[in-house]
Amino acid sequence: MFSPGSSILRETITVILAGGQGERLYPLTAVRSKPAVPFGGKYRIIDFALSNCLNSGLRRIYVLTQYKSDSLNMHLFEAWSIFNPELGEFIYSVPPQRKMNNDWYLGTANAIYQNLNLFSDKKAKWVLILSGDHIYKMDYLKFIDNHIKHDADLSMACIEVPKDQASRFGIVGIDENYNVQSFIEKPPVPPEIPDKKGYSFVNMGIYVFKASVLKDVLLEMESKKIKALDFGQDVIPYMVKSNLKVIAFRFIDENKKVQPYWRDIGTLDSYYAANMDLISVTPEFNLYDSEWPLRTYQYQYPPAKTVSHEGERVGRTLNSLVCDGTIVSGGLVERSILGANVRINSYSYITDSILFHNVWVGRHARIRRAIIDKNVFIPEGYEIGFDPEEDKKKFTVTETGIVVIPKNMVLKD
Fold this sequence. Notes:
This protein folds into 2 domains: 7-277, Spore Coat Polysaccharide Biosynthesis Protein SpsA, Chain A; 305-405, 3 Solenoid (UDP N-Acetylglucosamine Acyltransferase, domain 1). 22% of the residues lie in helices and 26% in strands. The protein contains 10 helices and 29 strands. Strands 1, 4, 5, 6, 8, 9, 10, 11 and 12 form a 9-stranded mixed sheet that branches. It is elongated, with a radius of gyration of 23 Å. The model is unreliable at 1-5 (pLDDT under 50). It catalyses: alpha-D-glucose 1-phosphate + ATP + H(+) = ADP-alpha-D-glucose + diphosphate.
């Protein structure tokens, strides 16, 4: 391994693709991009990729934004303005500026093509490209070290999945030396990993390129008028056919669990399941590892508290995550995640739900299996999640029955 002060860190540019619309997460993405969606009570989804960068020693970061980026831009400024440009560190939000033509970002590779100047101007040797909407823990320095060791033009991080489940993903085919032979989206018969029969390699959307090769390939494809919008569909197959050295890197999980953890949260149901995992007795994803801190914006609120009154007005939280500034006053909260500055009033009942920042729950209200976005006021006696047909008339309800209420929605008594 290279030491944190070595040239590898100074000569690597990190680009995080964070313009995702996240249509299947609507209405959570009605007012924000997918990377800006809250997760785990206090975090945003992009915090996990950024925390990986911080823990890997990478401090030269561009975040490419596009779709409804106000919330994301504010979060980057408030939570991540920790880098010192005087020391060569930075984090910059880069919107589409139509540098090459009149197009917005048309795909992952096109977003990089429109910003080739970013790593050309910084004279980077390597470019690390990440997705801003995945949740996992990874030491990118190990990944880049392996890339340099094998003198690869492109390295792809891959996670192994059972072959019988692999047809749902983009699958990377390799030879015995981990040279990439193919990349196929959702193949009916996925190729196996040579040294692990019964498993296939899934593309994680995490790449490290030689900067000069990345630039040459994109310019060459443009000059030949070959479509180069997406890395997986266009650029990687072109590089493999051109006999450039493309290798796979087996994902090394820093989550310290038996099963490697990597989630691309694409639907409301998968979003709900990933959040609910955090409140289980032994969560698959570990938020409490002091050796791998997860950074986010810290609201300057007082500690959370429960308040009990005389009689049956007992404030209780059971098997739940509760963020700063939240008060549970005489209500019962079970198996739920309460964001910052939430207020639960007397005789109310919350179970198996996710409440975002600044939600107010009135007396005698009952909420079950719901996701409630920011700044929603739940009137006294209101019920959510108990009458599916009534809920479907007013709210988004998922296939598994999760009720989703959008940000700032006004509920009538």
